[in-house]
Design a protein that fits this description.
Layout lengths: L1 H15 L25 H9 L4 H8 L3 H12 L3 H25 L1 E12 L6 E13 L3 H11 L42 H5 L22
Helix pairs in contact: 2-5, 3-4, 5-6
Length: about 220
């Protein structure tokens, strides 16, 4: 009798034990078709364009097709890649010209040196000394000449005495042996003497029509 009661108690205890909850694994995320999205850095690409890189160079650096790069630029910037590239290169050329002019004309800048003292207990830094030095950079003659030739059309050729010529043109020089200044003498033609050159009639060809032309015997 006692055994039956014990079995009933065990059965009652088993009925009170809840069944273990079955934990379902989370569903796998849907896989996107195509290549993974490329994380472009706008500032880095702008610096590359300023440095002269092309769309092919940038696409190769990111390991993607250039069409992917072009579409990202249109979606992000709202302009075409060619327009953005021209803007960056124009800004780079302007900065280069400004820097060249600065070097050519000379400039000054400041250099500041700060000395700190570190607290051994707290590690806090305290400024104890500050020194500012002004650095002067004199004009650069080579850059001045370069800008003068390229921006102003200047040349190493001297200007004529009357100042009527242009840079780069060779003035009319007088050769050694010419007559004194103010006495113009016609140039001699090849094979002509002074009489021919000074003939006022100008009929130089008649002098060769001699009536006493020498007759040459015919070949037998």
């Amino acid at each position: 009798m006692a055994k039956k009661i014990k079995n009933k108690v065990l059965e009652a205890d088993l009925e009170q034990v809840p069944e273990p909850e079955v934990i379902q694994p989370p569903p796998e995320p849907a896989r996107r078709m195509g290549r993974p999205q490329v994380a472009f850095d706008e500032k880095l690409i702008e610096n590359m364009l300023r440095g002269g890189s092309s769309g092919v160079d940038i696409a190769e650096a990111y390991g993607c097709d250039r069409g992917t790069l072009y579409r990202w630029v249109e979606r992000t910037k709202g302009i075409s890649f060619d327009t953005w590239s021209r803007q960056c290169k124009a800004a780079s050329r302007h900065l280069l010209r400004v820097t060249q002019l600065k070097v050519a004309m000379g400039y000054s800048d400041e250099k500041t040196e700060v000395e700190f003292q570190v607290d051994a207990k707290t590690g806090k830094k305290t400024e104890v000394k500050r020194k500012t030095t002004v650095l002067h950079h004199p004009p650069n003659a080579a850059m001045l000449i370069f800008l003068g030739k390229n921006n102003l059309g200047q040349s190493d050729m001297p200007e004529p005495a009357d100042g009527a010529g242009k840079f780069g043109q060779i003035p009319d020089y007088r050769m050694v042996g010419d007559e004194e200044e103010g006495e113009e003498k016609p140039a001699l033609g090849a094979g002509h003497d002074d009489d021919f050159a000074n003939d006022p009639s100008g009929n130089y060809a008649d002098r060769f029509n001699d009536d006493d032309d020498e007759e040459y015997p015919e070949d037998e």
